[in-house]
C-alpha cells in the first residue's frame, strides 16, 4: 500500500478529485495549507503599501491506495493539476505499512 500526498493549487482541487474518481479512487483527505517552493511568494500592493506574501495558499491531498494503482494516481494528479506555470505543486509517495477501518476493524487493503 502507498500513501500519496499532493500539494496543488486550490482552484485545481475539483479537477484532481474528478480525475481520481474516474480511476476508482474512493476517498481522499483534503487540507488547506500554506507554503512556498521555488515560487518564493510574491509582493502585493495594499492601500499604496507594498508587502511580501511569503506563504501561498495551497491544498494538500492525501490518498491511501493499493500498489497497483500508484502509476495511474500519479498520472491523474499530474495531468489534472498541471497549469504549466510555477507553483503547480508536488507529489510525494510513501509506503503505508498499515491501514485500519475503525468502524469495521478491516485491515490492510480491505480498509482502503
UniProtKB/TrEMBL annotation:
SUPFAM superfamilies: GlnB-like. GO terms for molecular function: ATP binding; enzyme regulator activity. Belongs to the P(II) protein family. The lineage of its organism: Bacteria, Pseudomonadati, Pseudomonadota, Gammaproteobacteria, Oceanospirillales. Keywords: Nucleotide-binding, Phosphoprotein. One of its GO terms (cellular component) is cytosol. Signal peptide: none annotated. This is Nitrogen regulatory protein P-II 1. One of its GO terms (biological process) is regulation of nitrogen utilization. Pfam families: P-II. SMART domains: P-II. It comes from Endozoicomonas numazuensis. The modification O-UMP-tyrosine is found at residue 51. PROSITE patterns: PII_GLNB_CTER, PII_GLNB_DOM, PII_GLNB_UMP. NCBIfam families: PRK10665.1 (NF007946).
